[in-house]
Amino acid sequence: MSRPLRLDSAAEQTAEQQGEQKQDKPFATLPGMDKTQEIRPEPRPGPAPEVERQAAAQSGEPPRWGKGTEIAEDGHFLAGPHSRTSELGRLVRIGADFVRGFRALHFVGPCVTVFGSARFDETHRYYALARDVGQRLGRAGFTVLTGGGPGIMEAANRGARDVAAPSLGLNIILPKEQRPNPYLDRWVEFRYFFVRKVMLVKYSYAFVVLPGGFGTMDEVFECATLIQTGKIRNFPLVMMGTDYWEPLREFISHRMIEEKTILPADYERILFTDSVDEAMHHILGAATGELGLLWEAAPRWYFGESGLQKPGR
């Protein structure tokens, strides 16, 4: 088995050579290829939030996927100060959420996260594009990571499954009526939304963003801000579905730069493209160059995580 590790010095080989040499060897092999392994902190989740049910009733559509539950722990956390005893208990639960994520993701290999709306079905061109992206990422050896839902997320996970690459979903606790998509090797839920966001950034070596709503936009600008402020290294942020993102691209490249609220270099960190080849070249170039990933033997585990990965022989 092979797995890339971050090194202090950049790899000398080109990105394309690295990808071609290892495209048929995924970095990690996860258990449960015929059945999703679920890691869930809440066995009996509640219904969708009241605010989402009201919005759905006004639009005449069912509640949107992945908007959380009615009694959400992170909602209590954000509702001002509580007793010191309850805050201490919450601190323990936050720590447990982080530990759950660390254990679930430590051995999955370098991930690329694909974001996008849950609203596009398999007949839509964005679904087809996301599935192609998932396939190409999987062939290059990356674990494909999404929010685990339908639409763009399902398409990317399905593309990874098409080429037998690891396919993961991470999200907050779902309402009892909702389920993750069927193309996951592992599904991990978190009590706290901000813990899930940390995990997506921590284990990803690139973000690929297809058309989506507020949640997608939130991830885009958080990533751009972390890169801009030097909190994370300059890893690829790829926006696909350029017709959808054109108004945003114009706003960033003209209005924001003209008003000097950002620098031209901030805009240049984002790649807008509909070419999967260009996206992969950009991602592999950064992974093996700027981020210094090489294919090496997988590490051993020492803290009981052996059930979280099955190494190749």
Helix/strand layout:
Layout: E1 3-6, H1 15-22, E2 37-39, H2 50-59, H3 73-77, H4 84-105, E3 111-115, H5 125-140, E4 143-146, H6 152-162, E5 167-172, E6 186-190, H7 193-202, E7 204-209, H8 214-228, E8 237-239, H9 242-258, H10 264-268, E9 270-272, H11 276-290, E10 293-296
Parallel strand pairs: 2-6, 3-4, 3-7, 4-5, 5-6, 7-8, 8-9
Antiparallel strand pairs: 1-10
Describe this structure in words.
With 313 residues, the protein is of the alpha/beta class. The protein has one domain (9-41, 97-293): Rossmann fold (3-Layer(aba) Sandwich). The protein is 43% helix and 14% strand. It has eleven helices and ten strands. The strands form two sheets. It has an eight-stranded parallel sheet with strand order 2-6-5-4-3-7-8-9, sandwiched between helices. Helix 1 (15-22) crosses helix 11 (276-290) and helix 5 (125-140) crosses helix 6. The radius of gyration is 19 Å and the shape is globular.
Supply database-style keywords:
313 residues; alpha/beta; Rossmann fold; 8-stranded parallel β-sheet; two-stranded antiparallel ribbon; 11 helices; 10 strands; 43% helix; globular; disordered C terminus
